[in-house]
Design a protein that fits this description.
By secondary structure, the protein is an alpha/beta fold. It has 11 helices and 10 strands. The protein has a domain of about 160 residues: FAD/NAD(P)-binding domain. A 6-stranded mixed β-sheet has the order 4-3-2-7-6-5. Strands 1-8 form a two-stranded antiparallel ribbon. A two-stranded parallel ribbon has the order 9-10. Helix 4 links the parallel strand 2 and strand 3. The protein is globular, with a radius of gyration of 21 Å. Its cofactor is FAD. InterPro entries: FAD-binding_Monooxygenases, FAD/NAD-bd_sf. One of its GO terms (molecular function) is monooxygenase activity. This is Phenylacetone monooxygenase.
Length: about 280
């Protein structure tokens, strides 16, 4: 293969931009959504049916013991579970927990208009041959990717306990097991269920990732702005406000609205064209 010549000024430009992205001062300009009361409401799961989850018999409760506890119901958690079952373990030996209300990981949370994977579905979607799932699009839309995750869980009888977060895990040397404290979050209508509980597991598998966590800049005046204007994160898209849905993003409620979107990376590349179709005016910051 031939070499590609890159002039010095271009290299210096990209090095300078990289240094900006990695600067610790930039990371400090982000709000910790789970800890900052001014934005904690943005953690609310718009997709979870809390009432339905509250009626389900939980796979785990205080004092439960299981062989495998997998934290994370996205692709990593699903693949771990599949290979354990393939190795001969009973699906009932596994429980997968996730703070989301269902399967899919980042593809559970992200449902913004235009959402699509930039890798061909036959390469990106896991366990297609094993589960029999056939992608309908060369580049799968977010809805199809989430459907694939749900299909895998149903195909292999996986046990998912949702709206449940890991609080702390301690190794119990005398028992040779992990003592894991979990906490359910089923909304304000079910406060009696939103309490920590501790379970014991022989194997603890963390299958979490960074892409389901929201990044919110610490903008001066954000509190005041939110009191006057509608603000939400792309990973918590509010179709009740914009109109439309994940399968039919006709955002008719934005026809008389001036909309601003902060960010110009992959999410914006996908969402901006859809917003531009409907907003009275769109600003990209």
């Amino acid at each position: 293969m031939g070499s590609v010549e890159v002039d010095i000024s271009t290299r210096e430009k990209y090095s300078a931009e990289r240094a900006k992205r990695l600067a610790t001062t930039n990371f400090a300009k982000r709000l910790e959504v789970s800890k900052d009361p001014s934005v904690r409401d943005l953690l609310q799961d718009p997709w979870a049916d809390y009432d339905a989850r509250a009626k389900e018999a939980p796979y785990l409760e205080n004092g439960s013991r299981t062989k495998f506890l997998i934290v994370g119901a996205g692709h990593s958690g699903l693949i771990h579970a599949y290979h354990l079952i393939k190795a001969g373990f009973d699906p009932k030996d596994l429980v997968i927990v996730d703070n989301a209300g269902g399967w899919g990981g980042t593809w559970y949370w992200n449902r913004y208009p235009g959402l699509q994977c930039d890798v061909e579905g036959y390469c990106y979607l896991p366990l297609l041959q094993e589960s029999g799932f056939v992608p309908q699009n060369r580049y799968s839309h977010g809805e199809e990717i989430r459907q694939n995750a749900e299909h895998i869980a149903a195909k292999f009888g996986l046990q998912g306990m949702f709206c449940t977060s890991l609080v702390v895990a301690d190794w119990n040397e005398s028992d040779g097991r992990w003592d894991v404290t979990l906490r359910r979050q089923l909304g304000p209508a079910h406060e009696e269920l939103n309490v920590p509980f501790t379970v014991s597991t022989q194997f603890l598998i963390t299958a979490t990732g960074p892409l389901s966590s929201m990044s919110i800049p610490a903008l001066p005046g954000l509190d005041d702005f939110r009191r006057e204007k509608k603000v939400f994160h792309a990973a918590r898209w509010d179709y009740d406000y914009t109109g439309g849905s994940t399968t039919d993003p006709h955002m008719v409620n934005l026809r008389d609205k001036v909309v601003g979107i902060v960010g110009t990376a992959a999410t914006a590349v996908q969402a901006v064209p859809e917003l531009a179709k409907w907003a009275q005016h769109l600003y990209v910051f």
